[in-house]
Specification:
This protein is about 35% helix and about 20% strand. The chain is an alpha/beta fold.
C-alpha cells in the first residue's frame, strides 16, 4: 500500500489568513494543500481563482493539489498551471474532450487528476485511467464544505483499486467529502491513499491540526 497522505482543504481555513493557515498546515505535517476552485456555474458556489493561488504559492513548498470545479475547464488550465498548481484535477463533464484536456495539463509538466462525482460512473473515464496520475473520488456532491460522507462511494474506491492493481496503473486514489475519524479507515482500507479533509482538520480536537492529520492517517 502507498503511504497515506493528507491533503487539507483550505475551503475550511480562515480566508482572511490564508497564507498563515497554509504555513500552519505545513508545520503540522500536511502532505499537500487541497485548493477547491468553484465557478458558481459547474457547482453552486464561488471560491478562489488563479491570482489567489499565485499569491499563496510563495507561502509553501508543499504540492498544490488544485481541484477545478469549473466549466468549460479547458481554456482555464493554463492560468492555473501558471499560477503554481502542481496537480490539476478536472471533471469529465466539464470538458468537451477529456483526452485533449489531459494532454493540455501534461503540456505544462503538471500532474493530471480526474474527479468523479458520486453519480459519475468509472466507465466514462476508463480509457484514460492509464494516462492520469490521480483519481479524485467525490464522497459528497461538490459545491459546499461540511457535507456528510456518502457511504456508497466505498464500492467505487474498491473498483478503482482493483482496476489499478489488475492493470498495473500508477494513479493515486484520493477521496474528498465528509472525511472524518469515523470513516477514514474504511476509505483507506478500500484503497484510497490520499484523503482530503477540511472541517475535521481545522475543527476537531479544539483545532489541533497536527493531531487531526495524524489521526486521519491511522489505519
Amino acid at each position: 500500500m502507498k503511504k497515506i497522505q493528507i491533503s487539507p482543504s483550505i475551503l475550511s481555513a480562515d480566508f482572511s489568513q490564508l497564507g498563515n493557515e497554509i504555513k500552519r498546515l505545513e508545520d503540522a505535517g500536511a502532505d499537500m494543500i487541497h485548493v477547491d476552485v468553484m465557478d458558481g456555474h459547474f457547482v453552486p458556489n464561488l471560491t478562489i481563482g488563479p491570482p489567489v493561488i499565485k499569491t499563496l504559492r510563495k507561502h509553501s513548498e508543499l504540492t498544490f493539489d488544485v481541484h477545478l470545479m469549473i466549466s468549460p475547464v479547458h481554456k482555464y488550465i493554463k492560468d492555473f498551471a501558471d499560477a503554481g498548481a502542481d496537480i490539476i484535477t478536472i471533471h469529465p463533464e466539464a470538458t468537451d474532450n477529456l483526452a485533449e484536456s489531459i494532454k493540455h495539463i501534461k503540456s505544462f509538466k503538471k500532474k493530471v487528476g480526474i474527479s468523479l462525482n458520486p453519480n459519475t460512473e468509472i466507465n466514462i473515464i476508463e480509457n484514460e485511467l492509464k494516462n492520469v496520475d490521480l483519481i479524485l473520488v467525490m464522497s459528497v456532491y461538490p459545491g459546499f464544505g461540511g457535507q456528510k460522507f456518502i457511504p456508497d462511494v466505498i464500492k467505487k474506491i474498491e473498483l478503482l483499486k482493483k482496476i489499478k492493481d489488475d492493470k498495473n496503473y500508477e494513479y493515486d486514489i484520493e477521496v474528498d467529502g465528509g472525511i472524518n475519524f469515523s470513516n477514514s479507515k474504511d476509505v483507506i482500507n478500500a484503497g484510497a491513499n490520499i484523503l482530503v479533509s477540511g472541517t475535521t482538520i481545522f475543527k476537531e480536537n479544539n483545532g489541533n491540526i497536527k493531531k487531526n492529520i495524524e489521526t486521519l492517517k491511522e489505519v
